[in-house]
User: Which sequence fits this backbone?
């Protein structure tokens, strides 16, 4: 086995030139923008990566790409293992009960009924939701949804776990319980992506940092180094007035807009005919 084979065996996730494009939510405009633009990085098995970035930077889009819920418009994503996204907003059917959601998730993964029954037992024990598991998820609080989503994902024993702000809601006792579970998974060599607004939590738990800002990868490396860069950026932002910050964000957003190919071709044609 050559060195190249060893490298292929070790990586968990590899992104090469990945871009994701969304349409603006404006009925009068067909303009599109880059949620993520030309993102490339490689994560090894067993890495614990903290994803940093301000609101609207592209963190949640990246989490859904990593979880294979959506596909990139450009570039390639290599995933080596079974993934699970733990997010308040994703992966649960609001009309179904907690138990029905477990059955649905298990069925989608092709698990036999006896395996799903085992998953239900684990979820009941870890989530501590009791009889609420027999209630429709639409009646759950955000903390209860987080408990259910986390417990289902852990029971399915994924290789790659993406946690998107799931510990930012609910009680501290359950958050501590989740962090303890993460440390167990860390010891088992699982790969974890951790998205949180708590920089201290990210620094405490993660070994690597990945900073996404305005759809662009700003830094990727040891968490100590990346967190300093991100903190400095936040410090600079805090010094701006409300008007200055708004102007700055507008300027940055213009750089994320996707040029209309037809407009560019039309302008080019006019130049040629002059």
Assistant:
């Amino acid at each position: 086995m050559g060195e190249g084979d060893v490298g292929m065996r070790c990586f968990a996730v590899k992104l090469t030139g990945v871009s994701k494009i969304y349409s603006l939510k404006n009925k009068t405009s067909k303009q599109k923008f880059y949620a993520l633009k030309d993102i490339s990085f490689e994560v090894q098995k067993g890495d614990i990566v903290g994803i940093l970035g301000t609101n609207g930077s592209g963190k949640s889009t990246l989490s859904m790409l990593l979880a294979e819920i959506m596909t990139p418009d450009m570039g390639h994503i290599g995933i080596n293992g079974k993934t699970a996204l733990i997010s308040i907003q994703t992966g649960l059917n609001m009309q179904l009960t907690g138990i029905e959601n477990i059955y649905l998730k298990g069925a989608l993964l092709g698990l036999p009924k006896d395996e799903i029954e085992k998953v239900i037992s684990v979820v009941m024990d870890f989530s501590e939701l009791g009889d609420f598991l027999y209630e429709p998820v639409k009646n759950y609080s955000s903390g209860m949804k987080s408990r259910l989503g986390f417990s289902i994902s852990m029971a399915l024993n994924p290789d790659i776990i993406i946690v998107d702000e799931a510990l930012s809601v609910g009680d501290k006792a359950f958050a501590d319980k989740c962090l303890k579970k993460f440390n167990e998974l860390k010891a088992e060599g699982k790969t974890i992506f951790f998205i949180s607004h708590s920089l201290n939590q990210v620094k405490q738990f993660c070994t690597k940092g990945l900073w996404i800002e305005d759809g662009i990868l700003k830094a990727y490396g040891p968490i100590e180094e990346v967190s300093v860069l991100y903190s400095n950026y936040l410090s600079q932002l805090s010094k701006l007035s409300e008007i200055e910050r708004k102007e700055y964000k507008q300027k940055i957003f213009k750089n994320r807009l996707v040029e209309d190919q037809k407009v560019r071709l039309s302008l080019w044609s006019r130049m040629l005919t002059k």
